[in-house]
Specification:
Length: about 325
């Protein structure tokens, strides 16, 4: 496929092999096809598997007496949901109404936008499975730790809605293989329809960064702000909210241009995991004090993961 795209760009379209624009178009076409294929395949597989988890089992695993296990399973569930921050909140509210522990609720809310099926589907092919596994592990740890910390603080009093006496259905009641297949196909259609523009936008920006922005300029900016580069880039990314699928190729392009691994990933995590729109929607559920506490914990977690990845970079990459 990569060879065919190169033939199309350089031979059919007439861009020279030394053309920055030609390399940008080549990057855009190849990565768009690859990421769309991976996205469709992963959404179908995970949506199909998700139908095997009925609501009563979900309540059992996410609402058990062991808060650590409950938080872990909630974080894992968040990692399997294809949502960014704002899209995760309706699920968070439904889980809240299921009377789940605070640790589990926030473990899901933290993990869902940071570690999701897009990451699992896209990142191994772009940056390698080793880095992806380390990132996923750190993201899950951040969700579990953040959830347990907020639970320890006793933040339930800061919610502005009460636990409902009865839970709401989260997953559909599907029994046959045909139903599961239809559900998975519908999920693919619905999610890809909403996100394909974001994916192409992200790949396009990544292609421009990769081929047009001078490597020296990026390195200079990150070097200039060290050792606070992770903190600064995390703050910069918060108002730049967008789809988590759009930012992955941007972060990878920044990394391959010379920005430290953890700094690039801090940008990606803050871009997808913290946002002003999220704060506005959460105001329906919790007061400003709890929103501030939640944002502060996620911010600190992102910064810590960024510095950890920067420390590990010489041992886990060839860059």
């Amino acid at each position: 496929m990569k060879h065919l795209v190169e033939l199309l760009v350089h031979n059919v379209m007439g861009f020279g092999h030394e053309s920055a624009l030609g390399h940008t178009i080549n990057f855009f076409i190849y990565d768009s096809i690859k990421l769309l294929f991976l996205l469709v395949a992963m959404i179908y597989i995970l949506s199909f598997l998700r139908t095997y988890v009925p609501e009563d089992k979900l309540r059992k695993y996410l609402g058990g007496n062991n808060k650590v296990l409950a938080a872990f399973f909630a974080a894992l569930f968040g990692a399997l949901t294809p949502f960014c921050t704002c899209s995760s909140i309706p699920i968070f509210i439904s889980l809240f109404k299921l009377r789940l522990p605070i640790a589990a609720l926030f473990a899901f809310l933290i993990t869902s936008p940071l570690v999701n099926q897009y990451v699992v589907a896209i990142m191994p092919g772009m940056i390698g499975i080793k880095i992806t596994l380390i990132y996923v592990s750190l993201g899950l740890a951040m969700g579990v730790g953040g959830g347990l910390f907020l639970d320890k603080l006793g933040v339930q009093k800061h919610f502005e809605m009460d636990f409902a006496p009865e839970g709401e259905q989260i997953l559909p009641k599907i029994k046959t293989t045909k139903d599961r297949n239809n559900f998975a196909i519908d999920e693919v259609k619905d999610i890809v329809k909403k996100l394909w523009k974001w994916l192409l936008l992200g790949v396009g920006i990544g292609a421009i960064i990769h081929n047009f922005i001078p490597r020296e300029s990026i390195i200079y900016l990150t070097e200039l702000t060290k050792p606070f580069d992770v903190i600064i880039i995390t703050l910069i990314a918060i108002p730049m909210y967008g789809s988590c699928i759009a930012v992955i190729p941007i972060a990878i392009a920044l990394f391959k241009k010379g920005i430290a691994l953890g700094t690039a990933f801090a940008f990606m995590m803050s871009f997808s995991g913290l946002s002003f729109p999220e704060a506005v929607i959460l105001r329906r559920v919790m007061n400003l004090k709890l929103i501030g506490m939640f944002f502060a914990i996620v911010f600190v977690g992102i910064v810590l993961i960024g510095y950890i990845l920067n420390f590990l970079q010489p041992y886990i990459t060839n860059y």
